[in-house]
User: Fold this.
Amino acid sequence: MVATISEQNSVSVAKELAIKIEHLNFYFGTGELRKQVLFDISLDLPKGQIVILTGPSGSGKTTLLTLLGALRTLHEGSLQVLGKEIVGLPDKALIPIRRNIGFIFQAHNLFESLSASQNVETSVELTRNIGEKRQLAVDMLGQLGLSDRVDYKPNALSGGQKQRVAIARAMVNRPKIILADEPTAALDKASGRDVVTLMRHFCEEAGTTVLMVTHDNRILDVADRIINLVDGRLESDSDLETQTSRIS
Amino acid sequence: MNFTFLKRVPLAWLNLTHDRKRFVTSLGGVAFAVLLMFVFTGFMNALYDSQIQLLTKLNGEVIVINRLKNNMFVPASFARRRLYQVRAFEGVADAYPFYISEGAWKNPETGQSFSVRTLAFNLGDPVLSLPAVNEYIAELQLPNAALIDTRVRPEIGPTEAGIVSELADRRIRIVGTFELGTDFASGNGNLVMSDVNFLRYFADRGPEEDTRSFATADLGVVKLKPGATVEKVVAALQQALPADVLVLPRDGPDGFVTRERLYWQENTNIGFVFTLLTTMSFFVGIILVYQILYTDVADHWAEYATLKAMGYSNAYLLGVVLQEAGFLSVLGFLPGFAVSYLLYNAAAAATGLFFQMTSERVVNLFVATFVMCLVSGVVAVRKVQSTDPAEVFGG
Assistant:
């Protein structure tokens, strides 16, 4: 299928959007120290798309990611996550929204005291699906190639394995959106590649939207779309589906 | 009932016990704070309990004293004929006079004199419920015979039957022993003798000392008939007797025993000093537990923040930290209690004071320990609650 970008966009709008951003402004600090970090961002992320967000340090990438993750209260513009407007919501109302989102961080942030399975189970417990949590966690770890490491503590796992446990924790509830911040930064080339390939694989299967902040040029090819952010403004937005062959 | 919380990953327990060495050190810290509280409250209670040892051994439900005798230290006596009046009242089975006097005891080994308290009564009256005393009634009928308390202070010298020494400059022979213990009013220890012998020593000790006779008694111990109501008898006696005597029930909140205890609580600094020390131990405990919990929270800051990003509420995190506090309080209390128990026995043997580990005191200190850990938990958890989950994303 060959389509121009404008046609592609109109199709996406017609499809359900995972995230819809309109004229979003964001500031840090108050009073005289108030500093605007995001300027008039408008962006639509359709379901099932894998988007990489790039840009120089300080351009506001991570800030944008935290906003989409409902981790900060917002006051200007419009931001709809899975159809729900979160601009103007108080902190408490943001908590249930976060449960639909999987987070993957640069560091794995696993509890050392918990086994791989237990770390993943903390995520399942949020869904109150207590009876099946062990099974769900073990299945998820198995799909990420960790079936023989289910009861290992993080200290006994390699860096790539730890990051895969963290991904299992983010994905076990089949969230509609995954937000990842430099997920491969702490990994070597092979593990980094493994990790993003697995993410890509799962997201295609489940129709999950992925927004990934990365500086890692080695993994740009997994993206459907690359967005470049400079000084808090959208600099470019290029769709790669037609240009790059996908890694399957 | 919803038991799903039991199936949750026991994050609090696993975080607490993950590092064994740190866990044991933490328990040691809590146990030490518990030990300090036990030791200080132990000394305080031992001092108070010792004051009332003799009083709880008086074999009567109602006590008659001179109105001026507001504690056992005051040597005020009352007319013994009041006790004859008492016997006439309904519900009263008998009323026994009890005589108390201070006197100088000569240590038979060093020859030095020390003040002791002599307790005396008619040998026909069962005034003291001390089985050891009642065994020696026959021996006590001999002239210049007395029993000595085995828990006297060491200055008094050896405490065994057969010792011959001097009391108030008269020869005295020890015919047996009993066990009571010292208090503030007892000087260095207690002797027990018959009322007849009491007069031999204290009737006339010279111009500078009070004379004693059977006309006055220091305590009146009133034994009631079975079925008589203590309150009614006390009220009737107090109403009918002249105001020179005070009639008190032995036990109860307004009783003679409680009054004595309150006197020492309110008129000495014991309570203040030891309560201060106990409170300080309590706060040391709070700081200790706070350190333990804060370290856990600070070390796992990113993980806790991740939980918040995943959608866990502050209440869940508060629950985790408070559970840790709960585990620390229970598991730290047990060794603290065990060591304190041994220490109480050792301290009782060394000082002659009464160290009593009553279940009420154990429960009180456990509650204190629990509150101590809870307060620390609430303070420590503020660190997690103020955590902004957005900060986990490395900027």
About this structure: The mean pLDDT of chain B is 90. Chain B has two domains: 4-51+269-392, 59-249.
